[in-house]
Design brief:
Length: about 550
């Protein structure tokens, strides 16, 4: 009966991780919470409006598509999400990769890539990959985040200075070169509007934290252009604005395009997973709660699917908007849903007026976004304090993000980090004679202590310390048998794990010993290596009698042989 109860509780816990946080919150939802959530949702929507437009333009799509993303993806992710306060929508992390997809494959390509990313995220969630995101090295996330920030900033120089390009390069280096080549088209009026907007964005929060600085910057810049009559390009000069609620669009799938876009889809999925879960961790610390990582991944996947079908772009949890939600009293997913509904109303009523927003003001907003996401202080700190291998991963990921794209940067960064980790672990593994292991060991009573051990003359004792895996397997080959030796003892107290390559090396040693008539003894073999040896039949080859509990037993047996 007790076992059955235990199983039921375990099953209940297992199922609970796939219950949206909204459902948990509704069990004790109050009128006071509802009022706070509504107020916070409206405030966050006002913050999200100019950001969504700016990030959409930075991504190479129309301004309304940023709003679509915040509406549809934001609502679904709040409804299904694993966090109490997560606010989702378009973020700067996707800007460069989305712009590249749109430029190369059009909106249809972006829709297909986003749908595939949504499916990947849902699969990741149900496979419980939520806890595995933490295994992506911090140096990689810091590197590509800083790289994205630089890319976004360079992409805004054109509009900030009012330059006229003769070409439309996609890559960051090409944009930087075109900026230099187009300096003769510099528009001082655009610079004035941009500088004023940027100054408001920097100074306004010092005096007023209730009204979003981006909203004030947009309003002031519109007044400057419309009332003073400054010669500055606006969103309406470059884009056709629509305030219609989009319908569902099903793209035409073909295997060629799916295969081509699969790496981009994985990149979007990984970025969405990393950023959303990072945002959840930050918000957990702010409200003293605990998110459900796997449910959050499922929600992110569903949100991106819906966003793509309604003409939006990739979405994820936005740390800044989530923090604003918490600071303004939001405590349940209702706030995120209100934020989406408010944006829907703004889309229908106010979207045509978005055409008045000057492009330099958008550039100024994105400059601030880029600065805030760059994490330059952390970047510098890591460069000062980290090992050379970590600095290498950080810098390589950063540079590749700028020079190439996120796909190349993340793939190279992960491979490089893995190789450097293997090298580090391989260097840790040692094969020595009589190496003392452990701290605070009572040498008088510990049978594993090497103090005053008597070793038979015909016996060699080797100590293996560290995990035995393919990168360190060659170190086993350091074990050799001299002439006149009858017994070789391998002390494996310090080997927590072993892989098949290391086992092969050990088998070769055993074979070599057998040919020379030498008995191989294994002392203190831990659980994982022992299980592997038994499964591979190696334990039977060596003989169970030659597996010794500790070094004393091994030495006694060696003396008898």
């Amino acid at each position: 009966m007790h076992v059955l109860q235990k199983m039921c509780k375990g099953w209940e816990r297992e199922m609970n991780q796939f219950v949206p946080k909204l459902f948990d919150c509704m069990k004790s939802y109050s009128k006071e919470q509802c009022i706070k959530d509504i107020i916070s949702g409206i405030i966050v929507a006002i913050i999200a409006l100019p950001l969504s437009i700016a990030l959409a333009l930075a991504s190479g799509v129309g301004p309304e598509q940023g709003i679509y993303t915040a509406i549809f993806a934001g609502f679904v992710i709040s409804f299904l999400g694993g966090s109490r306060v997560q606010i989702a929508g378009p973020t700067a992390a996707f800007a460069t990769i989305v712009a590249g997809i749109v430029a190369e494959n059009g909106m249809q390509g972006l829709v297909i890539a986003t749908i595939m990313a949504g499916i990947i995220l849902i699969i990741m969630g149900f496979l419980k990959f939520g806890n595995l995101i933490k295994f992506i090295p911090y140096t990689i996330t810091t590197g590509f985040t800083a790289g994205i920030a630089v890319t976004i900033a360079i992409g805004q120089i054109k509009d900030f200075l009012g330059l006229t390009f003769t070409k439309s390069p996609i890559d960051t280096i090409g944009k930087a070169q075109e900026c230099i080549n187009s300096m003769t088209t510099f528009n001082w009026q655009a610079l004035v509007v941009g500088v004023v907007a940027l100054a408001i964005l920097i100074i306004w929060p010092r005096f007023n934290k209730l009204i979003p600085p981006s909203l004030i910057a947009v309003i002031v810049s519109i007044i400057m252009v419309k009332l003073i009559g400054m010669d500055v390009k606006t969103i309406g000069d470059l884009y056709t604005i629509s305030n219609k609620i989009p319908g569902i669009t099903i793209p035409e799938f073909n295997m060629g395009l799916i295969t081509k876009l699969l790496p981009d889809a994985f990149t979007i999925a990984i970025l969405a997973g990393i950023e959303s879960l990072l945002s959840c961790v930050v918000s957990d610390g702010m409200i003293g709660s605990r998110h459900k990582p796997n449910m959050e991944l499922v929600a992110q996947g569903a949100g991106n699917l819906v966003s793509a079908l309604f003409g939006g772009i990739p979405a994820t949890g936005a740390i800044a908007r989530t923090a604003a939600n918490v600071k303004n009293g939001g405590s349940t997913p209702v706030a995120g849903m209100v934020h989406s509904i408010t944006l829907l109303l703004i889309l229908v009523v106010l979207m045509p007026y978005a055409a008045w927003i000057p492009m330099p003001a958008i550039a100024a907003i994105l400059f601030v976004v880029a600065y805030n996401m760059s994490g330059w202080r952390e970047f510098v700190s890591l460069c000062k304090a980290s090992p050379k291998s970590d600095i290498l991963v950080l810098v390589v990921t950063f540079v590749l993000t700028i020079v190439f794209d996120l796909v190349v940067a993340i793939e190279t960064g992960i491979v490089l980090a893995a190789l450097l980790f293997l090298m580090r672990m391989a260097n840790v593994t040692e094969v020595k004679s009589w190496k003392y292991i452990g701290d605070n060991i009572d040498e008088e009573n510990d049978p594993e202590s090497i103090k005053l051990k008597v070793v038979p003359k015909h016996t060699l004792v080797y100590e293996v310390i560290g995990p035995m895996f393919f990168a360190a397997a060659d170190k086993f080959m350091e074990i050799s048998a001299q002439t006149g030796i009858k017994v070789v003892i391998i002390r494996m107290r310090g080997v927590p794990a072993m892989d098949v390559t290391a086992l092969r090396s050990l088998r070769m040693i055993h074979d070599r010993c057998q040919k020379k008539g030498i008995t191989l003894l294994l002392s203190h073999v831990q659980e994982q290596p022992k299980m592997m040896m038994e499964k591979a039949g190696f334990a039977a080859e060596v003989g169970e009698e030659n597996f010794c509990k500790n070094i004393d037993v091994a030495l006694e047996r060696a003396a008898q042989l």
